[in-house]
Amino acid sequence: MTVKESQKHKLHQPRTIAITGGKGGVGKTSVALNLALTLSRQNKRVLLLDGDTDLANVSIMVGLYPQKTLANVMAGECHLEDTLLTTDYGLHIVPGASGVQECMDMSPADSLRILRALSQLESRYDYVITDTAAGLQAPSLHMIAAAELACVVVTPDPASLTDAFSLIKVIKRRGYRRVPSILVNMAQGASQARSVFQRLDSAAQRHLGMSFHYMGGIWRDETLRQSVINQKPVALLPVSDPSCRQFYTLADMVNVRLSQLPQRKAGIAAYWHNVTRRQSNEEKVGLPQPVSARDRCLNAVGELEAALTQAPDNAMLRYEAFTRLFALLGGELDSDAVEIIQTGLGSMAWEKLGREHKENLAAHLRHLADEIAPERTKDPLSSPAHAALPEPVYDKISFGEQDRLLRVLKEQPADISLDQLLRSLAGNDRSQS
Ligand SMILES: Nc1ncnc2c1ncn2[C@@H]1O[C@H](COP(=O)(O)OP(=O)(O)OP(=O)(O)O)[C@@H](O)[C@H]1O
Ligand SMILES: [Mg+2]
Q1: Which CATH number fits domain 3-281: 1.10.10.10, 3.40.50.1370, 3.40.50.10700, 3.40.50.300?
Q2: C-alpha 245 – ligand 2 centre gap (Å)
Q3: Contact 41/300 with Cβ under 8 angstroms?
């Protein structure tokens, strides 16, 4: 029986949630863990898949140090159950869950063994929550696609918004059709959280032709920050505590959202099973239709524009985008590249610059010009232009035939002054003419 067939016989499937976010350190693990603990506290059976490859992972946040991870299961050294860590309120954690990606490199029999075990495991829970690693690596992208609900964590930091935007753009390109939820972490208050969401949402409407679901905000909270250091998650505090309360609100929001989404017939393991089965043509699965270099380039520029518009105050981002783009344009420095760069510079609205900025820029441009092609020096012999002078032409009209002139020169005494020499040559010329 395949994983898919075994799914058909199950009455129960967990609700699956991926906690994700393009940027590191936005609070994915804190959110995933506290949400998982809150649901467990509400007597739900919850499995937390720790897909974070970083050190700041779930198990460390609760002070548990895994002896075995999914990697050991892959290697056939133990069963999936042996990796389970149990923490407060009976929450179960699978460490090293990002290793599930390696199923794709295993033999069909081996990967089926692992995925069947995962399928059986997840059917015992009400919720399976995945904490993904930051970035656009394949395991994280698959974990988002595998879950019913993708909760993208962002912060008011513009860099987190641009990274989240890139992440969503990538998953959309890979065929993701659901509406991601946005959770604004580390917000100063409700209005800031809402406006951060709206900025991201309007950028997505403009550039991706899609809209997001607003999952709410989690406040910037010193207690939460300390809880990570003390390895005592805020979800363990009394329910009346504001830090803990926030996650009750989040759990409610998640449940409302899940109730709006059709429940999947199959869980995470079945998703991976499909991916594994299509491994041979994985390149084609979920990836965009082939597009021309021109379209890809225009899309990329559109994306860059969106990212820069999202973060108008982020000078570092503009600096990085500018230098990398120019390095690309000038990678092949032929006459086309020079013209492209010239045209680009020419189209800048320099007149809008203040006097001081203009002078500053002009000084830089002069310096740059000197580096590219230094001005010719006064000494004509050391000038590179000298080398390009035409071959000297013998002036026959002034000096007569060359061999006659040579003879006259040889006849002159060695100690003759330049003056006498010129006079004698002139006399010689006259005598010849
Ligand atoms: N709401 C918050 N208020 C204050 N500090 C927070 C908040 N959320 C997270 N933090 C702090 O931010 C840091 C990063 O959090 P966390 O490890 O959860 O992020 P992450 O997105 O999982 O990071 P990584 O990408 O490295 O996995 C931690 O020190 C955590 O305590
Ligand atoms: Mg993390």
Answers
A1: 3.40.50.300
A2: 22
A3: no
